[in-house]
Amino acid sequence: MRALIQRVTEASVTVDNTMIGEINQGLLVLLGVEKHDDETTVDKMVERLLAYRVFSDPDGKMNLSVTDINGALLVVSQFTLAADTKKGLRPGFSSAAKPAIAEKLYQQLVEKIRQKSMTVATGQFAADMQVSLVNDGPVTFLLEL
What is the CATH number of the domain that holds 116? Predict the structure, then answer.
């Protein structure tokens, strides 16, 4: 499982010219599910997303998590993150989870974040989405499990 996380002051996702999810300060999470991922992977990713320290403390150091700042998360499925790009000029997707499995794990991740009393907005699985954001910093990290 790979999550490209971006610290944002605002982010939104639109499908068919309709905004379906938006947040203010928090994390935009682009999530790629790989074929070896399972519920244990989901639990580990939820833990990392909620505890990863990318927000500044009063001294300007990245010591605070999205939980610490009472921020929100916008979680968007993005199977292209599971691509193999190590060789050639075209990405390969053999390491990506099958759509039914990926959607199940994506939904589990979102639900587990909600169970932690966090504000979560989402995209629409397998839809053609337009994502807008204001990357704060810019701060962007790739979390891999």
Answer: 3.50.80.10
Catalytic entry in 6, 14, 55, 79: 79
Active-site residue, from 80, 85, 130, 141 = 80
Is 79 known to be catalytic?
yes
Annotated catalytic, 122?
no
ω into residue 99 within 30 of 0, thus cis? no
Question: What's the token pair of residue 119?
Answer: 């504000």
Q: What is the pLDDT along the chain (145 residues), one digit of tens a residue?
A: 999 999 999 999 999 999 999 999 999 999 999 999 999 999 999 999 999 999 999 999 999 999 999 999 999 999 999 999 999 999 999 999 999 999 999 999 999 999 999 999 999 999 999 999 999 999 999 999 9
